[in-house]
Amino acid sequence: MGSVTTPASDRRATISLFSRLRTADGQADPFPIYAELRARGAVSPAPWGGHLVTGYGTCDQVLRNGVWLEPDTSWREKQGERTRWSAPSAREISRTLPALNPPEHTRVRRSAGGFDRTTVEQLGRRVSQVVEGLLDTLHERLRDGEADFAALVGEQLPVATVGYWLGLPSADWPRLRELTHDQVFTQELLPNASQLARSDAAMVELRAYFVELVRDRRRHPGDGDDPVSRWIRTWDELEPDRDKADEAVYFLALFVLLAALETTATLLSTMTLLLVEEPGRWGLLHEHPDLVPAFVEETLRYDSPTHVISRIASQDCLLEDTEVKAGEMVHLMVGAAHRDPARFPDAGSFDPRRKVAHLAFSGGIHYCLGAPLARLEAQTLLSRMIARLPRLTLVRRPAMAPRVAFRRLMNLDVSLT
Fold first, then answer.
1. Is the pTM of this model over 0.90?
2. Mean predicted confidence (pLDDT) in 276-303
3. With contact defined as beta carbons under 8 Å apart, do 51 and 319 qualify?
4. Strand runs (DSSP E) across 125-229, as ranges?
5. What is the pLDDT of residue 115?
6. Is the peptide bond before 103 cis (omega within 30 degrees of 0)?
7. CA-CA distance, 121 to 98, in Å (whole number)?
8. DSSP string computed for 45-106
9. First CA to last CA across the chain, in angstroms?
10. Phi/psi zone of residue 295: left (φ > 0), alpha (ψ -120 to 50 degrees), beta?
11. Which residues have CB under 8 Å from 130's CB, separation 6+?
12. Closest C-alpha among 64, 21, 28 to residue 309
């Protein structure tokens, strides 16, 4: 007779999978582990409570359906004082736009505006200038041998773009970049105590920085293109209490920085890794530069910056054949869903010619506000790299940051051959 699978053995097996995900090998290549997890079904129990969702169609359904909510401030307060949700950084991040639910989400998102065609065109000129300068620096370093693309380009372009747009002094950019690396742990799947402590410390410093920024812009408003000054004017009309208005602007500025830096930097470095690890991809893009946008989209599917998105059930419901109670959390394993063979033929192959769809920018009302800017940066960089650095070669496989939900390449060492 075959062995009988019990809930306890299922739980132990899933814990083992996540233990492997948290190792250096698991972070470098989580996809075989995702395949094992996906084999358990589109929805499976999470060992710590709630559910794991690995099927693409089911993840897409959750992101687009208003039944599923963000774990907002109210939900986090119900989880108790001695949980990760009670950490100061977790409470702070719960008041930023991505963690809000309607009607507050609707109000704040409208106040934020967006990256319309005029804004994107203006930023496009800035991005082009920054890319040329960064590639100049990279090329100069490569004359002496190898260089770290992630440090010299991948990390630099997003902060130079959003820092310019927000009007932040360039001298502050390196520190802001470091703080974003630390704060992201509070949004991780299973942060430990030391990681949460780093997030808490980073958030204290980020709050002080952006609160002072809002005060300064209120004293010295920028021109019509300055988003912080525009948000101040908008919230003065929405909120009669000036302190509450300034607080709302602070959370918008904080959100823009956090959203624009971490994930975009990962996209740029991952895209470049995929380019340099396979020389034939250079030739393909050189012969078919019109594939640059598709190369970026396939990067977002193949190994997206965000591998986990969490949602809360607003009511008792069925997800596939699984009962989910109101208030229970589901973890959308986007990294696994993007390799779902039921959605993507030959899902483990990188194919820029693929007619791709992905969930890298989330979906529904929480679709990423900065998606046009991230695409602009990635496409501009990739186009100029193909033209300027056709002999760029990978020196060694990069190390990955100790994360599960949010990918980050710690380095990307390249050379010219």
1. yes
2. 95
3. yes
4. 147-148
5. 79
6. yes
7. 25
8. E-TTSSEEE--HHHHHHHHH-TTEE---HHHHHTT-TTSGGGSHHHHHHTTSGGG--TTHHH
9. 59
10. alpha
11. 156, 157, 160, 161, 164
12. 64
Alpha-carbon distance of 415 to 321, in angstroms, equals: 51
Q: What is the dihedral of CA 237, 241, 246, 251, to 10 degrees?
A: -90
| Separation between Cα atoms, residue 29 and residue 37, nearest integer Å | 14
Q: For residue 145, is it left (φ>0), alpha (ψ between -120 and 50) or beta?
A: left
Annotate 263-316 with DSSP letters as a single string. Answer: HHHHHHHHHHHHHHT-HHHHHHHHH-GGGHHHHHHHHHHHT-SB--EEEEESS-
Burial label, 280 (beta-carbon count in 10 A; 0-12, 13-18, 19+): exposed
Q: Could you give the CA distance from residue 91 to residue 204 in angstroms, rounded to a whole number?
A: 12
Tell the residue number behind the tokens 């897409």, with chain if given: 60
In whole angstroms, give the CA distance from residue 316 to residue 324. Answer: 6
CA distance 214 to 242: 11
Cα gap 215→342, rounded to integer Å = 52
Region 266-289 average pLDDT:
94
Summarised one tens digit per residue, pLDDT across range 213-222 is: 999 999 999 8
Exposed e or buried b per residue across 95-113, where buried means at least 16 C-beta atoms within 10 angstroms of its C-beta? bbbbbbbeeebeebbebbe
As given in the structure block, the two tokens for residue 201 are 């410390």
Question: Do 351 and 97 contact (CB within 8 A), yes or no?
Answer: no
Separate counts of helices (H) and strands (E) for the chain: 18, 10
* Distant-in-sequence, close-in-space partners of 264: CB < 8 Å, separation ≥ 6: 157, 158, 305, 370, 373, 374, 377, 378
- 175 neighbors 163 (Cβ within 8 angstroms): no
- pLDDT tens-digit map of 170-180: 999 999 999 99
The pLDDT score that the predictor gives to residue 3 is 44
Q: How far is CA 80 from the centre of its chain?
A: 27
Q: Is residue 356 packed enough to be buried (19+ CB in 10 Å), middle (13-18) or exposed (0-12)?
A: middle
Q: What stretches of 184-239 show up as alpha helix (H) in DSSP?
A: 193-219, 227-238
204 vs 202: CA distance, rounded Å: 5
Q: Is pLDDT larger for residue 65 or for residue 47? A: 65
| Owner of token pair 């952006």 | 210
**Residue 266 token pair:** 């990962």
Q: What is the pLDDT of residue 336?
A: 97
Tokens of 64: 């687009």
Q: What is the pLDDT of residue 9?
A: 67
